[in-house]
Amino acid sequence: MPELPEVEALAGFLRERAVGRAVARVDVVAVSALKTYDPPVTALGGLTITGASRHGKFLDLDVDGLHLVIHLARAGWLRWRDEVPAKPVRPGGRNPLALRVHLDDGSGFDLTEAGTKKGLAVYVVRDPADVPGVASLGPDPLDDAFTPGALAAIVDGKRTQIKGLLRDQRVIAGIGNAYSDEVLHAARMSPFKIAATLTEEDVATLHEAIVTTLRDAVERSRGLEAQDLKGEKKTGLRVHARTGQKCPVCGDTIREVSFADSSLQYCPTCQTGGKPLADRRLSRLLK
């Protein structure tokens, strides 16, 4: 799933490639991906893209005051085309293409989604806050207002595991499954640690890990082509999706905890005092 660093990089990429271009037309291939109808997607035709930004994991294209807001979900992606085929794409079948944007110079981009479980969402709105997922976002961890004190207020009294808290977009915007694993590894903190038990020192350590991990990932992705961002993300990860490999810090074997529709990875030596976590939902440290 694209998270804050990848969406930030996509926004930067589109600022270079798409801003200043007019929208020639938009082809909606998967109608289920389009979540709004007023204004209609056809209203974008003839308007100029004036900006590209990010709200958490939402990508936002300002099109002369209207906003094309995109959430790529788990398996969605944006694919840039220097030359977009003029012929409209027929909907249906197993085509991963959900939406195609044609620009006035012949370039444009596709929104695609792999797999059968569809979650990609596209909105055309007058204000990004009209998108429910944007309106409910928590603070952005790269904003100057996200201080150790702000994080302390977030975790205060929360009787939930820190891994889940970091992934909750209503609490902190932009961190998903992959970067929450990376952040907790950098902070040397168990993913099952209860948020309310964090000391002042723990909060400061976690804050530093959040900001540094995300900023480093953003810098690694800066200037890359859209097609290269997924590969860069995978290369930069130290523990996520690296089950069975050696921890780059201590050399211990990276372990995994599997859930119904996701999994987490961690290093026992760095994060849990050498004890493996039980591989079942809501488990605690093995005795």
UniProtKB/TrEMBL annotation:
The UniProt entry, under InterPro entries, shows: FPG_cat, FPG_N, H2TH_FPG, Ribosomal_uS13-like_H2TH, Znf_DNA_glyclase/AP_lyase, Znf_FPG/IleRS
Task: Give the molecular function GO annotations.
Answer: 8-oxo-7,8-dihydroguanine DNA N-glycosylase activity; damaged DNA binding; DNA-(apurinic or apyrimidinic site) endonuclease activity; lyase activity; zinc ion binding
Catalysis performed (reactions): Hydrolysis of DNA containing ring-opened 7-methylguanine residues, releasing 2,6-diamino-4-hydroxy-5-(N-methyl)formamidopyrimidine
Annotated FPG-type domain ranges read: 238-272
* Essential cofactor(s): Zn(2+)
The Formamidopyrimidine-DNA glycosylase catalytic domain covers 2-93
Q: What SMART domains does the database record attribute to this sequence?
A: Fapy_DNA_glyco, H2TH
Keyword Zinc-finger in annotation: yes
Keyword check for Translocase? no
Q: Which Pfam families match?
A: Fapy_DNA_glyco, H2TH, zf-FPG_IleRS
Sorted alphabetically, which keywords does the UniProt record give? DNA damage, DNA repair, DNA-binding, Glycosidase, Hydrolase, Lyase, Metal-binding, Multifunctional enzyme, Zinc, Zinc-finger
GO BP terms in the entry: base-excision repair
- Please state which protein family the record places this protein in: Belongs to the FPG family.
What is the official name of this protein in its record? Formamidopyrimidine-DNA glycosylase
